[in-house]
Amino acid sequence: MATAFSDNEKVLIRQKLKEVTYDCLLKYGVRKTTVDQIIRMTGISKGSFYNFYDSKEILFFTVLEEYQKSIIDELNSKLRKKDNIGVDEFTELIYNLYQNVRSSFIMNIIQNEEFEFLMRKLPKEFIINHHSLDDLLTKEIFSYIKVKDNVDVDIVSASLRAIFMSMIHIEEIGEKNFDDALKLLIRGLDQQIVKEDNDD
User: Fold this and answer.
1) Fold for domain 1-53?
2) What whole-number distance in Å separates Cα of residue 172 and Cα of residue 170?
3) Which end of the chain is more exposed for a tag (fewer CB within 10 A), N or C?
4) Over pLDDT 70: what percentage of the chain?
5) Is 76 in contact with 145 (CB distance < 8 Å)?
6) First to last CA, the chain
7) Looking at residues 135-153, what average pLDDT do you find?
């Protein structure tokens, strides 16, 4: 029988579960991280774990989404402090955000070809909701820049996702030129989006 926790304990345990999971995903990846590892490092029973999350994949996805929100919040914080952001500056900000991702646990998942595996293990509504979150976050970012007329934010959000997914194929694209190619793709997209003061 699972232990009953106070509301404060639930908050602390949920936070600990996410911290442990982040570390495990960074070290071991999706397939090699087990519920047994997580509960041992967190200090709760398996029954208690399933009171918090229906599966380890949902916990993984929660950690992934929270990380995504944190880097978007960081980007928004930088955007708030700037006026009249042009293509070059916006390209650098997005490029640096992607580089931040490359040094995170997400890259371990991508390099081990586990991202698609994780997506397949999740309920369909999680994927749909995640894409909705991407769109909302993109709209929030766009509130800080001048956007060209007739730009469809949903298409831009999908384009940013497509560029992000290119990191799954670094080896095929060529590691030597990948960073330059990534920046070129981002800049090309930004030129279609950002309205600069000298634009007609």
Assistant:
1) Arc Repressor Mutant, subunit A (1.10.10)
2) 6
3) C
4) 92
5) no
6) 68
7) 82
